[in-house]
Amino acid sequence: MEEDDGAEEQQRFSYRQRLKAAVHYTVGCLCEEVALDKETQFSKQAIAAISEKILPKTLKCLQDMRKEVQLTLKM
Q1: What distance in Å separates the CA atoms of residue 46 and residue 31, rounded to the nearest whole number?
Q2: Cα Rg, the chain, nearest whole Å
């Protein structure tokens, strides 16, 4: 049982890290587009701060979507 819990926890951690990287990458791409359009630059720290601010909202949205899918599948 403990091995299953450990494996599940590791899987959650891995999923969260991949999601965090995807959000950071996407924010970086969007910042790059805005920077080109507005002729400005975003520091790596600014991109990281924006990513960290967005991540909890992204997780909440994904949880809500998962619940909706589960409810839909039960119908």
Answers
A1: 9
A2: 17
Task: Given CATH 1.10.20, say whether it is the number of domain 2-74.
Answer: yes
Q: Tell me the domain boundaries of the chain.
A: 2-74
pTM over 0.85, yes/no: no
Q: Tokens at residue 75, please?
A: 């119908």
Torsion, Cα of 37, 40, 43, 47 (10° steps): -30
Residue pLDDT, tens place only, 60-73: 999 999 999 999 99
Distance CA 38, CA 26 (A): 18
- Range 14-19 average pLDDT: 95
